[in-house]
Design brief:
The protein is of the alpha/beta class. The chain is built from 12 helices and 10 strands. Helix 2 crosses helix 3 (about 80-95). The structure holds D-glutamic acid. D-glutamic acid (DGL) binds next to helix 3.
């Protein structure tokens, strides 16, 4: 089937909370004509310490909400933990293309290293799932991978506490394995972690390249739209001419006023207001 020239449906995106806003930022910057509907499941964050089965349940619920209620043309799982738990199942279940952040992140990581010593940091759930170990192996890159879980980082970001002494002390402890392994490229394998980039760099040193999956994921979407029919589901197309200005909706399952206030600080002025998710308290 030939893809339609124009598809005005929004892009849907979700995360456990504020972390996916790092991915939203990249999409807004790279695909400014596209409408975006973002769900931050702040009422149920953090996902990292939960079982993969429970996170998969949340992911299915949010995905169905975005597809059924918002008619999204593409679903971006802007959360590594949810992608580790449910990406393949969502691809099987949904009629729209589904993108995660793990493979794009790995592509950027293996491009960034000179020494071949690379690191990935993520939530306990992501690390325990083995998703990054499998993705790096599948990439075929001859790299030596060190993976470290960083429990507690997400909570600091959700509190808006991205530069405190406490998070610095925690980072010194949790990042010791990647420092020891002398990595020269470190993938922030949790979408919350770019908000801690300054603290992480203070601890690992400026010589270590920090890699985020956000830009690569947005470039992958751009390539998909530009490259004819999507991998599965309905063909996807860009919304319209590049001078169209997309609209951006933000939905939270937690405290919506707080989502708006902290979200605007983290993302920028596009987050003008937030709506309550139907399953939110
Ligand atoms: N941003 C999520 C991720 O990328 C954080 C998960 C959490 O809530 O612990 O893994």
């Amino acid at each position: 089937m030939t893809p339609p020239a124009v598809d005005d449906r929004p892009i849907g995106m979700f995360d456990s909370g504020f972390g996916g806003l790092t991915v939203a930022r990249a999409f807004i910057d790279l695909l400014p004509a596209e409408d975006l509907v973002y769900v931050g499941d702040t009422g149920r964050y953090p996902y990292g310490p939960r079982s993969l089965g429970e996170v998969a349940g949340f992911a299915h619920e949010i995905a169905r909400f975005l597809v059924d209620e918002h008619d999204v043309k593409l679903l971006v799982v802007a959360c590594n933990t949810a992608a580790a738990a449910a990406l393949e199942a969502l691809r099987d279940e949904l009629d729209v293309p589904v993108m995660g952040v793990i493979d794009p992140g790995v592509r950027s990581l293996v491009r960034a290293t000179d020494s071949g010593h690379v690191g990935v940091i993520g939530t306990v759930g992501t690390v325990r799932s083995g998703a990054y170990q499998r993705a790096v192996a599948a990439s075929g890159a001859a790299v030596d991978l060190t993976v470290a879980a960083c429990p507690g980082f997400v909570e600091f970001v959700e509190r808006g506490e991205t530069g405190s002494d406490q998070v610095h002390v925690l980072a010194e402890r949790l990042l010791a394995p990647v420092i020891e392994a002398k990595v020269d490229a470190l993938l922030l394998g949790c979408t919350h972690y770019p908000f801690l980039a300054r603290t992480i760099t203070d601890v690992v040193g400026r010589d270590v390249v920090l890699v985020s999956s956000a830009e690569e994921t947005a470039f992958e979407a751009l390539a998909m739209f530009g490259g004819g029919p999507a991998a599965q589901g309905e063909p996807a197309a860009l919304a319209a001419s590049p001078d169209r200005v997309g609209t951006h909706r933000f939905i939270s399952s937690g405290d919506v006023d707080r989502f708006q206030e902290l979200g605007a600080r983290l993302l920028g002025p596009e987050l003008g207001s937030a709506e309550r998710a139907p399953w939110g308290g």
